[in-house]
Amino acid sequence: MTDSRYLKRTIVKEEVDCNSLGEKRKLRIYLPPGYNEILSYPVVYCQDGEEFFNFGRIATLANQLILDEGIEPFIIVGIEVDVSVRTEEYAPFGNRFEAYSTCITEEIIPFVERNYPVRREPDQRVLAGDSLGGSFSLHLAMKNRQLFSKIISLSGAFYDASLELIAAEKDLSTLSLYMIVGLQEQQYTTDTGTYNFVDLNRRAKELLEARGAKVRYYEKDGQHLWGFWQKELPEALVYFLE
């Protein structure tokens, strides 16, 4: 049975004006046990924020890591997305990709840093995402290395456009990635086609390592589902936050 301490979560809902997109964007912000505004905290920014909280159970997992595993308390910012335009925002070929990237770097992060005591060094910010959210997190870090250096990619959707962007880079030695993909993801159908996610992730890993990125990479039994990613989230968080 789940320990009731893990379920006592503080989650604040916020809304940010994203002028770059011409709309408001909702955030879910997890504050750790013992949260104190005079302290400072590492921060994890999650794409598909609603799913990370609802299906990934990231707030409960964070409580468990902090209370039982001795992980330093951290803040989580879940950035919610309208699934009807998700590919347009997360894929590098999407027509909202640049505007959404700007929304994060110039509007969401400044909002969070004005209102919450998060640390501002690149190695104190973690980007996390599943599928297209994983590949988007890498692209955002590649474009903004003064802001980000750590990426969690859960079954990243490294389509050809993403692989080409990685291949075009010469030096990615400032980046550190935790990548995992399920062995049962070899024929997964998305809104843009059917892909072998295992092959895509292997190719991305090779390209990243050849350019100096540090990659912790796993292939495990699992499907392209939150049931798989949820089990893998604690180890990914510990890797960067321990």
From TrEMBL:
Protein name in UniProt: Enterochelin esterase
Organism: Paenibacillus vini
PANTHER family: ENTEROCHELIN ESTERASE-RELATED, IRON(III) ENTEROBACTIN ESTERASE
Highest taxon listed in the record's lineage: Bacteria
Pfam families per UniProt: Esterase
